[in-house]
Amino acid sequence: MSDEFKKEIKDLARKYEEKLRHTTASEGSDRGADADFEAVLAEFFKISEDGATIFNESVKEDRLKVYKLPADFLEIFLSIPGRRGGLSIVSPERLAVFFDEDPDVITVIGKLRSHGSSIQANVNKSLQLIKISYSKTDKGYEYKDNTGKALDSGEIIAVIIGWLVSS
To answer: How do the residues of the chain divide into helix, strand and coil, expressed in percent and rounded to 5?
Structure first.
């Protein structure tokens, strides 16, 4: 690797960091919302991993998998632009994707997996499973569905896993 190449890449990195600092400074008011979203997503991810582990150990097979999804993945592969990231829980037949819709709302969509078989096109459309609003309280985060009913994060994941493994 030549010294000129290293210098060129370092120069690109410096310009990128300057641009990033400028952008971050102008978006300073969103940092609290980002921190809350990241904390909520981390909670759902941990509970999803625990739920998948319990399910997989019970059926003695790795049927459920949980993945963190970067914002780029949501935009490129799922055509969901402008999001901060998300997570997915995947079964052999279905997948559920959690992503932010508003600063304090997480949307969960579900989709049947086709596996290259002759499934009709309309079966492959995604459907909204739930919208979860959240707010920070003294004890952590409080979750509600779109009707305003209080929800427990474990109950939410149990319902999603139930949908993923239903026939």
So the answer is: 50, 25, 25
